[in-house]
Every structure is written in C-alpha cells, then in structure tokens.
Design brief:
This protein has 193 residues and is of the alpha+beta class. The chain contains 9 helices and 5 strands. The chain has a 5-stranded antiparallel β-sheet. Strand 1 and strand 2 form a beta hairpin. The longest helix has 20 residues. The termini are far apart. The relative contact order is 0.09. The mean pLDDT is 82.
C-alpha cells in the first residue's frame, strides 16, 4: 500500500497523521527522515509498504522527532511555561530517589500546585515536556507563584485537603491576615452579615 492510502484510509480518521501531534512533527519532516534511512535512501518513485510496516515506520519517526525536539531544551535544570501562560513547570532533581532521578513539578495560576511526575532518565522527562509543548522560560515558576490567583488557589487546595469547603475555611481562618488579603470581598460579606 502507498503512504497516501495508509494516511487516508487506515491510520488516521482526520486524514492528517500529524494533526494530533502539533508542531513537533510534520509530513515534510517525516519524508526527509524516511529518505535518510538506509533501506529507503535510494528509493525513487512510489513507496509500497504493508500496513504494519507503515505503522512501524511512522512510530519510529515519531520517536526520532521527539528525541530531536527534546535536545532543544537547555542543559541542566530549568523552568518552562505553557502556551497560554497560565501554567509553569520546572525540571528539577527528585527529592525521593525511589521515585526517580528527575521530577517535573507543575503549577497553575488558577489551581495552585498541580502535579509532580518522576522519571529515571532526563530524556523521558524531556519527552513529556516536548509532547506538552512546554517552552523554556527562566522565571516562569516564580512569576506564577507570586500572583494572587496562585496564592488563592493554593489556600483553597489546602482547605480542600482538610475536607473544608472554601467558605468554611474562610470563616475558620477569618482572623488570619493572609486570608483577609486573599479573600477581601468574602471576608467583608461575612463580617457585615
């Protein structure tokens, strides 16, 4: 079968096998890579491969392209920002070696601390960043953690971990200066009620 048939009828309903991978992979990049492979280097004309071979070749290209993109990240540990600017992450050494050597710590301006992922290799961590479209951005982590939205989200998350609804947490902690600063309108409504 030729690539066009594989692409349109078998592999992807959208007809574009690269659509779901964003800017990481392109059809032009795929064919450039394909013609650099020893078994296809001197091939001219229409390439016929069985379906399962197209699958294998396509997966090899995706792996290659991901590794190449991961190489564009800075050496060492660094911070990244999401495309919308509302999330940040940091590739840092893991504090718990039993969980992995590397850790990606995610935060969100709207929801506070978000998640941590652990990896045994730097390349695996970089692949996750590449797939997510994260862009290196020094200071991204601090910029989000210093916002009032982040502080509010973090406080709400802490109350949630205690099993408290936001209003219950505010009522309980109404005399704390941090709560008064973060939730001034709600504090005012409670005090005037």
């Amino acid at each position: 079968m030729i690539y066009q048939v594989y692409k349109e009828e078998f592999r992807f309903e959208s007809g574009d096998p690269f659509l779901c991978y964003g800017e990481l992979y392109t059809e032009a990049g795929f064919f450039t890579w394909l013609h650099q492979q020893a078994c296809y280097m001197n091939f001219v004309g229409v390439l016929y491969l069985p379906f399962h071979e197209w699958d294998a070749v396509f997966e090899q290209y995706l792996s290659y392209a991901l590794v190449e993109y991961a190489k564009t990240y800075p050496d060492g540990y660094f911070e990244c920002i999401s495309a919308d600017g509302k999330k940040a992450c940091a590739l840092v050494p893991s504090a718990n070696i039993n969980e992995g050597v590397y850790m990606i710590s995610f935060i969100c301006s709207q929801f506070g601390p978000d998640d941590h992922l652990f990896f045994d290799s730097r390349l695996e961590a970089l692949k996750v960043l590449a797939k997510g479209g994260w862009t290196p951005s020094p200071g991204a982590y601090d910029a989000i953690t210093e916002s009032d939205n982040f502080e509010q989200a973090t406080q709400l998350r802490l109350w949630g971990m205690e099993g408290l609804m936001p209003i219950e947490g505010i009522v309980r902690d109404i005399n704390k200066s941090s709560v008064r600063k973060l939730f001034p309108d709600t504090v005012k409504r409670i005090e005037t009620a």
